[in-house]
Amino acid sequence: MEITVADVLAMGALRDAKLLAGKQGSNNVVKGITIIEVPDIVDWVSGGEILLTSLYNVRLELSSLRDYIGKMAQKGVSALIIKTGRVVEEIPREIIQAGDEFGLPVIELGKEVRFIDVMYPVMAELFNKEVSKLQYYKQVQDHFTELVIAGEGLDGIARVLEELLGNPVIIYDKDYKAMTAADSRLTSFEEVQDSTERENLNDKFYYYRQEVIFPEIHDFPASQVVIPIQQLNQINAYLVVVEKNKKLADMEYVILENAATVISLELVKRFAISEVERRFKNDLLDSLISGNILIETALERAAIIGWDLNDSYSIVLMEFADINDYLTGKKQRTNFITEVGSTVAKVINEYTKHYMRISSDSLYVLWPAKGRDEAGVVADIKKAALKISAIFAKRYPKMRISTGVGSIALQIKDIAGSYREAKNAISIGRIMDEDFVSFTELGVMRMLCMLGLNNDLTEFIPRSINNLMVYDKENKTNLLNTFEVFLQNNSNATSTAKELFVHYKTILYRLEKIREISGIDFTNHKDRLEAELGLKIVSLLKNRK
């Protein structure tokens, strides 16, 4: 409890003092007491003081006394005690009238009472109150520190706060998502006043009170005391007390200050633990895809963080091209990594649980495949990749996402191989101008692409296909395309004619021309295989260009 003017009047030497004016200010809080040594002392008070004077140093015209008292009230002076019998026999009527007008208590002190007899008891009481506050502060701080040491976390802090304050407590993250709350109905609220109308409770720590309603409790109205939790000049959380049962008392703000500090420490601890855990997970994943880890060691490390590596997995690798068009600084890159990680994780979680490792321009995922056929797994991965690409196409239209999928690794030792396949799939996809490539679905194209990574594929084009290419170029025809469509339709001339929107006899004419130029026997299996491979090589070379 704070000391008020009424409390001071009940103290020893002041029991016989007379309250002549400003009775409405009897509950003014007293924070200090001092003597008026010079008239302009009013300019130096900070509020909450009792001023003692005999009016010896207050040499003002009677007409100026009203303004002098008004200035005291404006500066937050709690009361004015005037000693009579030495300088003045009675307090000027102008002072009494001004005291009533401005609500400033004016107290008459008899000439036999010394100022020191008034000051000592008040200062002693103020000192005792401060000592009590410090003791209480220490008790609360010790209590919260024990909670942190015991690992009670935010739930424990909120629970103890509710017991101490007698009101519900909620801790939100910086996006106002509840991290802990005893009553989930109170986590969602609507403000009913403008932010400029909030009651400021502490200029230093930016505590404030605001009026809200709770939709989940039939628009129940209540006030909230909000304490932003700052770390490195950034708000990372909010401690909110819902004054559902009672208004907070002044001493209870001591509890909140302690709680804010402890919550900040808890958040730092959480961050430190998550950072260590993240690095541990990343190191394990990197070891798995590199193959530089013993199976027993991998299983032991996975068990520590609750991972089951006895499952089968397919590696999904995603690479982000042209992101430098959007990222100019370290902070932007960090934000981009965070955004990508949360977006990708959210989409993949629609399909399966997973383990992910992300860097500045790529990420890879261990996609569980236990008990599923490879085609079904690849189909889900492709759906997820398309969703992810669609999301980022809106935010970063110039950025291109390439996705490669490795074959299913049935054992831990096979994970590194699946990763290499996923990486090769992306390289092959760039040759084929494809953003999504599954290594196992490439078939013969896989062999051709791998061959083309280190060789000039032009020399592998069969003479028959080369002859058609030369003829098309010299005569401005498109027989090569007709032949390719013909093979894709299982050598069915009718289907080929429909797909190319030409007459059936036109197709027969073209096929005869193709036989004549290329020398290919359509009934010869060897000729057909050679021609199909040649067409795929031509397609790869076009894409590479």
Automatic annotation (TrEMBL):
GGDEF domain segment(s): 311-442
Classification via Gene3D superfamilies: 3.30.450.40, PucR C-terminal helix-turn-helix domain (1.10.10.2840)
Domain of life from the UniProt record: Bacteria
InterPro entries tied to this protein: CdaR-like_regulators, CdaR_GGDEF, GAF-like_dom_sf, GGDEF_dom, PucR_C-HTH_dom, PucR_C-HTH_sf, PucR_dom
Protein family (similarity comment): Belongs to the CdaR family.
Name of the protein this chain belongs to: Purine catabolism regulator-like protein
Gene source species: Desulfosporosinus orientis (strain ATCC 19365 / DSM 765 / NCIMB 8382 / VKM B-1628 / Singapore I)
Organismal lineage: Bacteria, Bacillati, Bacillota, Clostridia, Eubacteriales
